[in-house]
Design brief:
Shape of chain A: globular
Oligomer: heterodimer
Helix content of chain B: 10-25%
Strand order of the largest sheet of chain B: 1-2-3-9-8-5
CATH superfamily of the largest domain in chain A: Probable tRNA modification gtpase trme, domain 1
Number of domains of chain B: 1
Largest interface: A-B, 16 and 9 residues
Number of strands of chain A: 21
Structural class of chain B: alpha+beta
Structural class of chain A: alpha+beta
Number of strands of chain B: 9
Shape of chain B: globular
Largest sheet of chain B: 6 strands, antiparallel
Helix content of chain A: 10-25%
Largest sheet of chain A: 6 strands, mixed
CATH architecture of the largest domain in chain A: 2-Layer Sandwich
Radius of gyration of chain A: 20 Å
Distance between the termini of chain A: 35 Å
CATH architecture of chain B: Beta Barrel
Distance between the termini of chain B: 17 Å
CATH topology of chain B: OB fold (Dihydrolipoamide Acetyltransferase, E2P)
CATH class of chain B: Mainly Beta
Chain lengths: 351, 125
C-alpha cells in the first residue's frame, strides 16, 4: 500500500502484469475513489464552466461528458478534468485526486470579484459525496449489465446515465483511463464497499481482477493518456502536450485563452512524443533525453508495455527532433541507451 | 520461509556461505515489494564487490532498485539465466534465482548479518 494524496492505495493486488492483461483481455476493477468531484449548479452553470475550462461545454447534451482542462492565466495546466452535463443547470466535474482542493480554489478565485461570484451559479466541492469504481476491459459492460436493468450498451462512449446498479444509485459513465471499453461508476461512499464486492462476485465468470495503481499507469501509458504531474503541469501548455483538441478558443473568453492562442499561432517549440527503447533499459520519469548526444528533453512517463512487449515512454522534445523515426537516446542511470520516436498511442483497441 | 542457513541484510539481500564461497540473492520480501521483475543487471565475473556497495540492479514494472552486496569479494559466477528469464526472481528468489557467487575476501563479514529469525523480526518491524 502506498500513500496517494492522503489515500492508502495498493500499487498492485495480484501483480501489475496479470492485472494489466486482465483489463486488455477480459475485465479489471479499479477503486478510484481518490478522484475528486466538483459540482457546478445554477442558472449560469454553463457560462461558469465554459469560463474556467478549455473545451466547449455548450456542445454537451444532457448525459454527455467531455475531456477538458483548467488552465492558469499564463496557459499552464491547473488540471485535466472530465466535464459531465447532468442537465442544463448542473455540471459534474471529475478531477485528479491530488489537485482537487487546488482546482476548487482556482475555480472559485477565477470566477469571483471581491469575493462575489460573477456568475449566477454555485460551485460545490463534492468529493466527500462520491466514491468511484472503474470497470474496464472488453467484458466490462457485461459484468455491470448483470447488476443492471437498463441496457448499458446503449450508453455511447463519453456519455453517462443516472440509474441503479444492484439497487444502488449510481452515475454510470462510459469513460475510462485504460484505452479499453468500460464504465466508471460514481456512488455514495457507503455504497462503495458492497458495490465493489458485488462487481468482483459478478465478474468472476468473466475473469475479473481487482487492479491497483501500477496497472492503471501501464494501461494509460500504452493508451498515451496524460497524467498530471508527468505529461502536464503548470509549466506545460495544451498545444505542447498534443491537447489542442480540447481547447476551443472560438467559444469566447476563458482563463488561459490568450497565451494558448498565441502559442498556437507562433508554433510550439517543444512537443510531447512517444518513444520506444531500442537498447536494453527502461526510460523512466525524469530521465534526460539526448538528441545527437546533446541534452534535448526529458521523459515524462516510461515503463514496460505488457501488451507490446517493449519498453515505451513519453517525453518532451524540441519540435524539430519530434518526428516519427527520430533516433534519440535516453540517459538510463548515466548510460545513454538508444531509443526512437514513435507514433502514439502505443496501443489502440480494435473496435 | 527464510532458509535458516542463509544470512540477511536490512537491504533485503541474502548470502549463503560455504567456506570461502558465498552465493548472493534477494529475499522473498524484496521480490514481493518490487513486483514483476523485468531486468536484472549483474556485475562481470572477475570484478570485485564490496560489502554495503551496489553491485547491480533489479528493475520491475514499477521501479528500479539497487542491489547492495552483503559481503566483499571477487565475483566467481553470475546467474546468466536471469538475463532472459528475470521473472524467475519472482518465482524462486531463495533458490534457482540466485544472483552472483563470490569468493569471500573476509568470511568473518558474515557474522555481522542477520539470521533468518532476526530478518523475519526486522520485517515484522
Amino acid at each position: 500500500m502506498i500513500d496517494f494524496g492522503g489515500w492508502e492505495m495498493p500499487v498492485q493486488y495480484s501483480g501489475i502484469l496479470d492485472e494489466h492483461q486482465a483489463v486488455r483481455q477480459r475485465v479489471g476493477l479499479f477503486d478510484v475513489s481518490h478522484m475528486g468531484e466538483i459540482e457546478v449548479t445554477g442558472r449560469q452553470a454553463l457560462e461558469l464552466v465554459n469560463f474556467v475550462t478549455t473545451n466547449d461545454a455548450s456542445r454537451l447534451v444532457d448525459g454527455q461528458a467531455q475531456y477538458s482542462a483548467l488552465l492558469y492565466r499564463h496557459g499552464g495546466f491547473v488540471d485535466d478534468i472530465l466535464v459531465h452535463r447532468v442537465h442544463q443547470q448542473h455540471y459534474f466535474l471529475c478531477v485528479n485526486a491530488s489537485n482537487q482542493e487546488k482546482d476548487f480554489a482556482h475555480i472559485v478565485a477565477s470566477t469571483c470579484t471581491d469575493g462575489v461570484s460573477r456568475f449566477d451559479a454555485h460551485v460545490r466541492f463534492a468529493s466527500p459525496d462520491y466514491v468511484q469504481i472503474a470497470v474496464q476491459g472488453p467484458r466490462a459492460l457485461e459484468v455491470v449489465q448483470g447488476l443492471c436493468e437498463r441496457d448499458l450498451a446503449g450508453i455511447r462512449y463519453y456519455h453517462f446515465l443516472d440509474d441503479t446498479v444492484a439497487g444502488i444509485s449510481a452515475r454510470i459513465a462510459r469513460t475510462g483511463y485504460t484505452g479499453e471499453d468500460g464504465l466508471e461508476l460514481y456512488v455514495a461512499p457507503s455504497d462503495g464497499p458492497p458495490l465493489w464486492r458485488l462487481l468482483l462476485e459478478t465478474g468472476k465468470r468473466f475473469g475479473i481482477l481487482p487492479c491497483g495503481l501500477g496497472a492503471r499507469n501501464t494501461l494509460r501509458l500504452e493508451a498515451a493518456m496524460a497524467l498530471y504531474g508527468h505529461e502536464i503541469d503548470a509549466t506545460i501548455l495544451p498545444p505542447e502536450a498534443g491537447l489542442s483538441w480540447i481547447v476551443k478558443p472560438g467559444k469566447g473568453d476563458f482563463v488561459g485563452r490568450d497565451p494558448v492562442v498565441a502559442i498556437q499561432q507562433a508554433g510550439v517549440s517543444r512537443k510531447l512524443c512517444g518513444f520506444e527503447m531500442l537498447g536494453r533499459g527502461i526510460g523512466r520519469d525524469g530521465y534526460s533525453v539526448l538528441v545527437d548526444g546533446q541534452a534535448a528533453g526529458w521523459v515524462t512517463s516510461g515503463g514496460p508495455s505488457p501488451t507490446l512487449g517493449k519498453n515505451i515512454g513519453l517525453c518532451y522534445l524540441p519540435v524539430d527532433a519530434a518526428g516519427e523515426g527520430q533516433p534519440i537516446q535516453v540517459l538510463v542511470r548515466n548510460q545513454p541507451v538508444d531509443a526512437v520516436v514513435v507514433k502514439t498511442p502505443f496501443y489502440k483497441r480494435e473496435k | 520461509m527464510y532458509p535458516t542457513n542463509y544470512r540477511y541484510t536490512k537491504d533485503h539481500e541474502w548470502v549463503a556461505a560455504e567456506g570461502s564461497n558465498g552465493t548472493i540473492g534477494i529475499t522473498d520480501h524484496a521480490q514481493q515489494e518490487l513486483g514483476d521483475i523485468v531486468y536484472v543487471d549483474l556485475p562481470q565475473v572477475g570484478s570485485t564487490v564490496t560489502k554495503g556497495d551496489t553491485f547491480g540492479s533489479v528493475e520491475s514494472v514499477k521501479a528500479v532498485s539497487d542491489l547492495y552486496s552483503p559481503v566483499s569479494g571477487e565475483v566467481s559466477a553470475i546467474n546468466a539465466a536471469l538475463a532472459s528469464a528475470p521473472e524467475k526472481l519472482n518465482a524462486d528468489p531463495h533458490g534457482e534465482a540466485w544472483l552472483i557467487k563470490v569468493k569471500l575476501s573476509d568470511a568473518g563479514e558474515i557474522q555481522d548479518l542477520l539470521s533468518a529469525d532476526e530478518y523475519q523480526k526486522y520485517l515484522e518491524g
